[in-house]
Amino acid sequence: MDGLDKIALLNGEMAVETAEEVRHPPTLPPNATCSHPSVMPHPITSKNAHKQEAMPVYQAALPGGKRISLLKTMLTSACERNCNYCSFRCGRDFRRVTFQPDELAATFMKMHQAGITEGLFLSSGIAGSSIRTQDRLNAAAEILRNKYAFSGYLHLKIMPGAEHDQILRAMQLADRVSVNLEAPTVASLGHLAPQKLLAEELLQPLRVVEHIRQTQPPSQGWSGRWPSSCTQFVVGAVDETDRELLNASQYLTNSLKLRRAYYSKFSPIPGTPLENNPCANPWRTHRLYQAFFLLRDYGFSTTDLPFDPTGSLPLSSDPKLAWAEAHLKHAPVEINRAEMVQLLKIPGIGPVAARAILSTRRKQPLRCIEDLLSLGIRANRAAPYILLAGRRPISQPTLF
Ligand code: SF4
User: Which atom of ligand 1 is nearest to the CA of 87?
Assistant: First the structure.
């Protein structure tokens, strides 16, 4: 079996890795029950086109917003752990593949040079200990950077329990590193991945990443910068709540400076202990992403979010709109006096729009909806919650 055949065999399994995914709102209504993760192969127009349907190459959004084609693959799909939701868990009956690090690097470069993929997301099952697996991941990255002079995007997975020097080496080679937390609490992780230790194996490597960024010069990184870091949670397989997921996400972004938390919608996999559990509702992960961005970019805290008594976000409403209905509907914000943090809480106004308002009103007050529209603001969305020069603006009512 050649390297391309091995990568093709992994197709379908990689859809659960949501890092860098280009998000779209769900197409099904919020009360839909089940849909499977979508694999979005990038069009391949090379001499290997006969394998195009089988290549796990995704359109990906990079940390700065740039879009690239990204190969998501594994160094090995063999694994000694038994995570209850995972297709790679030990003992599950399917055909496994293993690359040598130089074979993986050579196969990727072949695809890269053929124009099939611009970047690489490289993960691995744990085979022969986390330490050995991390060494092999780092070896593949070293071959790519040093032997092939690959200067494109590389996202390297950090194995649970990886050692400090291994994490440092991965950070010197990658543009992004990640550790999948999978669950926000010890209890929910116990149901998902009974052999994983939340604090010691998963959180500790993320602490090491941030400690290295804070204490060592970024010139050690291959591009002169330290990589960003992120994590992923599996949503809807067990009993974790949205409140727990977002509390954990807030801690990770505030304290460990993670750039992103990704929320992978659970879909049951035959031959695993959770095979009879229902799919998670795609609207749940959509609302989690909306809430995550409110926490990261809009000055919200988890205490602002509209959780119900069970700790769930409403599926049918945007959390920012729900907050505004509760807090701004009867106490609208004067656009000409509000501070940045208040502007960011108004529906239809994001960081770019808020900066535009602050800049414009230094020269002249904003008096009508047209003034907001001229700044590119979704003024009708904001209108029910604002005052312009002391007056409620006239606009079309929202559909909330
Ligand atoms: S350690 Fe990773 S690859 Fe192995 S079973 Fe768990 S989630 Fe799957």
Answer: 8
Ligand 1 centroid from CA 375, angstroms: 48
Could you tell me the distance, in angstroms and rounded to a whole number, from the CA of residue 26 to the centre of ligand 1?
A: 27
**Nearest CA, atom 6, ligand 1:** 83
CB 346 within 8 A of CB 324: yes
Its pTM stands at: 0.90
Q: For the chain, list the strands marked E by DSSP.
A: 57-61, 67-74, 119-123, 154-157, 176-178, 228-235, 260-265, 333-334, 386-387
Q: pLDDT in tens for each of the 400 residues of the chain?
A: 899 989 988 876 776 788 788 777 776 667 665 544 433 334 344 444 444 456 889 889 887 788 999 999 999 999 999 999 999 999 999 999 999 999 999 999 999 999 999 999 999 999 999 999 999 999 999 999 999 999 999 999 999 999 999 999 999 999 999 999 999 999 999 999 999 999 999 999 999 999 999 999 999 999 999 999 999 999 999 999 999 999 999 999 999 999 999 999 999 999 999 999 999 999 999 999 999 999 999 999 999 999 999 999 999 999 999 999 999 999 999 999 999 999 999 999 999 999 999 999 999 999 999 999 999 898 999 999 999 999 998 765 544 4
Q: Give the pocket of ligand 1 (CB within 6 Å).
A: 79, 81, 83, 86, 88-89, 125-126, 193
CATH code reported for the domain at 3-304: 3.20.20.70
Q: Which residue, judged by its Cα, is nearest atom 3 of ligand 1? A: 125
3 state DSSP class of 198: helix
- The candidate with the shortest Cα–Cα distance to 85, out of 255, 342, 275, is 275
- Closest residue by CA, ligand 1 atom 5: 89
Cβ contact 81:193 at 8 Å: yes
d(CA 193, ligand 1 centre) in Å: 8
